[in-house]
Amino acid sequence: MLSIEKLTYAFENARPIFQKISMDVKVGEFVSIIGASGSGKSTLFQLITGLLEPDQGEIRINGENTENRLGKVGYMPQKDLLLPWRTVLDNVLLPLEVSKENRQRKIPQIREWLGRFGLAEVEKSYPDELSGGMRQRAAFLRTIMTGKDLLLLDEPFGALDSLTKRNMHSWLLGLWGELQKTVLFITHDLEEAILLSDRIYLLGRESLQEVKVSLSRPRSTEIIYQSEFITMRQELERLIHDEN
Ligand SMILES: Nc1ncnc2c1ncn2[C@@H]1O[C@H](COP(=O)(O)OP(=O)(O)OP(=O)(O)O)[C@@H](O)[C@H]1O
């Protein structure tokens, strides 16, 4: 679904952030990117979405090498960017308005999704009236409503407290089989990356290392206490330590 080949990129008058890095994401996969602050994770998303153009290398989405990559992905930036003057329902309907679809016809389907996202009772509320977890779920649902199969999520749970984050993980793992999406996910949180992902890319200085997560699905958050999970976490910590 996404293939990046020998990507090189540098901001003006700076040393390259990426030097010939390659990666791919297959249909239906959940892939995380972990890296220290400033390693270039958000820049990588800006390159994938076409907000920046590579100096060298290729980015293909569904096999196509096109400049209009933003139109091919659902992108959820770090800040949720919900419009404060619109209700939850109207925020979620926004992608349909942008693509000029008939919003009235889609409302029953969207109400079903609002239920699955635990937002049915707040569809008429405004973003300021929601908890952090609810805001993130609303922004995530809006990203899904773009109808794109590839979702780029930039630290969607980064600002949440640990209990809310745990609830979000539990909720997302429960929903994952049903979503039928492909996700590329940025996080700083090793536990989150292992729990949610099929594979993890460790973004280091000018390098990208791939780690497979061989934990079976469906998963629950309880898995973090299992020895397989703990071993995986230790291995990742060692790789990050070696990289530094
Ligand atoms: N527009 C820009 N012009 C010049 N340098 C930039 C620009 N945007 C980002 N950078 C630099 O590029 C590097 C990577 O930034 P980026 O935001 O992609 O990192 P990140 O891994 O997403 O960090 P964080 O985890 O803190 O969000 C940093 O050194 C940053 O200062």
Automatic annotation (TrEMBL):
Which CDD domains does the record associate with it?
ABC_NrtD_SsuB_transporters
Top-level taxon of the source organism: Bacteria
Q: Which SUPFAM superfamilies match?
A: P-loop containing nucleoside triphosphate hydrolases
PANTHER family recorded for this chain? ABC TRANSPORTER ATP-BINDING PROTEIN, TAURINE IMPORT ATP-BINDING PROTEIN-RELATED
**InterPro entries xref list:** AAA+_ATPase (IPR003593), ABC_transporter-like_ATP-bd (IPR003439), ABC_transporter-like_CS (IPR017871), ABC_transporter_ATP-bind (IPR050166), P-loop_NTPase (IPR027417)
By its UniProt entry, which SMART domains does this protein fall under?
A: AAA
Q: Which residues form the ABC transporter domain?
A: 2-230
Protein keywords: ATP-binding, Nucleotide-binding, Transport
Q: Name one GO molecular function term.
A: ATP binding
Name assigned to this protein: ABC transporter ATP-binding protein
